[in-house]
């Protein structure tokens, strides 16, 4: 869910993704997404932007020995880690590829998921078109994306909280409000929208929030770029660590179905 992934080295990025997956909001939505995919033994399932392979073992367990799991990512460090984490699951294949041009045949996939990837892409619509191409009629896709424009952080200096959210939206995450767009993107790509869910990821603890939000690193970038005043931003950060803490943002999941010729 990071707003600061571009500032992280590969090892930090993997640690970050592990922490996000282990957090309560992370575990909750990943379980929901897995259930919504309605996986059956024998299915071929695709994870686009699989990262370090966080979700590949659960997908492998759901499709069984007779199924196949394909994890695709464009980052060699992620692929190496995904490969490493999948060694005990022979039905998992990890492949290098671009979400905008999937190295897969038309209608060759039963189920596909993409989890916090569209927010980073140059052309999310092209990625959706590719998912529509490779998923068979009747097949499902599951999308999960945050909406950073909804990030609310309580602080005595609410103007800096707003400025911080504005900085993430304008300068840090490429498609920061993609979460709210998922239904429209699915429809425009030719999917039927089976469901859209919005949940709030809420944090009452600064450290737990920081595992996801990485506020010191982001706020430093903000003052270095002139988006926030350094002294004001430092005081804002100190107030977060001292006082009662609350941060929340909306996280969207959407399920799309490829129409069958009869529907
Ligand atoms: C926030 S991480 C999420 C990883 C994983 N889905 C998870 O839930 O832990 C985003 C992933 O998308 C990958 N990614 C970004 N752009 C991509 C592209 N154009 N094609 C393939 N993978 C991409 C990144 O390398 C990274 O591993």
Automatic annotation (TrEMBL):
UniProt organism field: Plantactinospora solaniradicis
Q: Which InterPro entries match?
A: Methyltransf_11 (IPR013216), SAM-dependent_MTases_sf (IPR029063)
* Keyword flag Ribonucleoprotein: no
Write down the SUPFAM superfamilies for this protein, in alphabetical order.
S-adenosyl-L-methionine-dependent methyltransferases
What are the GO MF terms of this UniProt record?
methyltransferase activity
| The keyword Methyltransferase is assigned to this record | yes
Question: Which keywords describe this protein according to UniProt?
Answer: Methyltransferase, Transferase
Query: By what name is this protein known?
Result: Methyltransferase domain-containing protein
User: The Methyltransferase type domain covers which part of the protein?
Assistant: 46-142
Q: Which Pfam families match?
A: Methyltransf_11 (PF08241)
Q: What is one process in the GO biological process aspect for this record?
A: methylation
